[in-house]
Each structure stands twice: as structure tokens, then as C-alpha cells.
Amino acid sequence: MANINSISILTSELDAAGENRSLSIESDAGAEVTIQIVSSSNQFYNFTTKAFTSTFTSKNKLNVVLSTGFFERLISFPAASSVKYFVIISPKPYTETVISGGVYVQEIGSIADATITFAAVTASSAKYTSDPAISNTTTTGSPSANVNKIAVISGTFNNATTDANSNGLILTKPTISPKDFFFETTENVSSNPAGDAVSSLTVIVADLTDLAIGMTLRFHKGTTAPTAGTVIKAIDVTNKTLTFNNAVAFENGETMTFRAIGLESASNAIGAKIRLGKNILTPSKDLVTTTVRSAVSNASIIPVKATQGIAGGRLINYNGFKVDNSTTNRIIAVTTADPSGGDNDGVITCEVNQTLAVGTKLTFVTNNPKHFLTTAITIKADLIITKFPSASKTISLDVDNFITPGAASW
């Protein structure tokens, strides 16, 4: 009788990019075994070509005689995602070789690639021509591999052309910053140690996935917000308990919403490493303009041809031939919206009475010289990923941090 004393192969999950692993066997001298490796996709390892094949032949089975009591072979696992492999070693029939349990079977899984989605989000989606305002950017990679991958956020934010939402876009800075990103997740309240709905600094949750110290508690139930600035101060991993800097009346079974603000905090929360590279926000070269639709005589109400891009609320100045700007003269409101000019009824109201001829061209700019009024803004931003999370996640870009949509009035 010849005993198989040990069988060894690394059993941790395989890199999605593929890798080689050593299979070794120690036995009494003269032991004989048969080795097969089968995948969950019904493919068989060919010991000659070192590749998996869909057809089974004699080369998919390796007969080994351990004349010295030791065998070792490098097994090549290919690039794959979410595939399981089964290493099967059995005594060769009609020999006296013995394996404890009769047959050795070891499962080895492959790590799935993870996708990071960068999504532009806004609380004013109706102010744009599409929702989302620009298409999501996605990038995929292996959680276990060393990477240096660049994802490019690219697109154009276009102002809506409806009567209610066509009041332009105000660009408030020339580039985005890491602070403009966030990651958001939810978690249910398992129990409140202080009692249901009793104010407490701690709460017990069922799962700590994607939660990290410093994350903001945005809502403690539904859309009910806690005291502003409430953040996770400590995490007890053993007891799944979160400690906050402010007391909150947590209710058992309710859903909490957490937000990691800033690209570094968002990356840490999902177990990734991401940094912001070069980026630029570019407004349309075309200034917001219109023409006087009918003559104005000493009045602050001006009929205009089209109102697309004009914002009310005293955020916008304007100029043109014989426009009186001797004192502060801002747009109070877009009284009647006519974005395209097709209805021939557009009207704006300003602060200073004007006398203007038909056809006078009016040009609109922001009061703040660092801001820019436009109807379209293009973004291009590089995001450098050096580590992917273990599962697919979404990081949001808060558009409202750098674009303020105009309104008819405020």
C-alpha cells in the first residue's frame, strides 16, 4: 500500500487576469494517481498545451507515478471572471495507492473584475436636456492586480429648452476638485442600544460593508436628516456598532443613508485607490444673447425675441446699444419664457427703465466676474485608478458644486 501523505495547491481566489499555481504531492514511494482539472464552464485542463479545452481527450488527464514520493507541476489558470476550478486527484485504478477520503477534490474560484462607475448627479435634473446630464463613465479592472488605469469623464452639460427650465447654466469655477465627488450607501438599523427612537450616539447594524469612519449620516430614516455634520466617529467591527458625534433618534428597521464626501473618502469607503488628474470645464464660446422684439419706451419690461439662457433673480447683467447701465441694472425675472422665439411672446424684466429700438441686440453676463453664463458646458477629467474595489461600485460627481442652473426668478 502506498499512501498519499499531502496534496498542496494555493486555494485563494485566482486573479481575474489569470495566474500560475504550483500543485505538489507527497507520498510513499511508488504511489500512482490520476489528475484532472475541470472548470465550472465545462472545460478541461490540457496538461500538454497548458490550456483549457471544451473537448475531453487523453491529454486532459495526467497519470503520475511518484517513484521518489514527490511530484510538482505548475498549473496555468487563464484570465477569467467568476469561474470555479476543481482539482481532482484520485488513486490510479487497480493500484494500492490510498488517498484519505478516497478522492481529493479542491475548489478554487476566480475573482470577478470590478467596475467603477462615475456618475454625474444633480438636484436639478430638469434643467438639463438629459438625465443623467452626461453619460456615466465606467472602467473595469481586477481587484487583486496592480493597475494604473485612467478613466475619462467627458461630455457636455446642455441647458434644457423648455419654458420652465431654459434659464441658462452658470459655471462657477474652471475645474472640478476632489471635493466634488462622493460615494453614497444605505444600511438598516438593526437596533438602537438606547431604545427604539431614543436619542443615542450609537446604533447597531447588520452589515458594515462600505462604511468608514468620517462618513456623513445624510438621513437616519427615509429622507429625515439628523443634525447637520453628523458623522461616523468610530466603528466596532466585532459588535457591528457605529458611534456618531451627535445623538440621533434611531428607529429599529429604518434605512440610514451615508455619504463619503471627497474622492479620497469615497475611495477608502469602497476599498479603491483613485485620484483626480488633469481636468477642465469649458463653457460654450457663444454668449447668451437676444434681440428686442418691440420698441421699449422708458420701461423696465422688455419684449425680446428669445429667452434661452437668460436667468432672473438679479444674478445677470446685460448690455447693448443705448442700454442704460448708469446704475445697477440686473435681470429681475424672465416674465414670459420663449426659449426658441417661436411663440413671439418672450418678456424680461430689469431693474432700470430702458428706451430701446426694435432689433437691439442684448448680451447677458453674470454679476460675478469669476462666473460664466452659458447654455452648454463641456467637461473633461482624468481619474487615475491604482486599485479597484472587490465589487462594482458607483462614485458620484456632484454637478451642483460647479454649475448653478438659472431660474426665471428667485
How would you characterize the overall build of this protein?
The protein is mostly beta strands. It has three domains: 2-109, Immunoglobulin-like; 115-281 and 376-405, no CATH class; 288-374. Helix content is 2%, strand content 50%. The chain is built from one helix and 31 strands. The protein has one helix at residues 263-270; strands spanning 2-8, 19-27, 31-39, 44-46, 51-53, 62-66, 70-77, 84-91, 97-98, 104-109, 114-121, 137-141, 149-158, 169-171, 181-191, 199-205, 216-219, 232-236, 241-249, 255-261, 273-283, 288-291, 296-304, 316-320, 331-336, 346-356, 361-366, 372-374, 376-387, 393-398, 403-405. Strands 11, 12, 15, 16, 17, 18, 19, 20 and 30 form a nine-stranded mixed β-sheet that branches. It has a four-stranded mixed β-sheet with strand order 7-2-1-9, with no helix packed on it. A hairpin with a 7-residue loop joins strand 15 and strand 16 (199-205). The longest helix is centred in the middle third of the chain and has 8 residues, at 263-270. The mean pLDDT is 96.
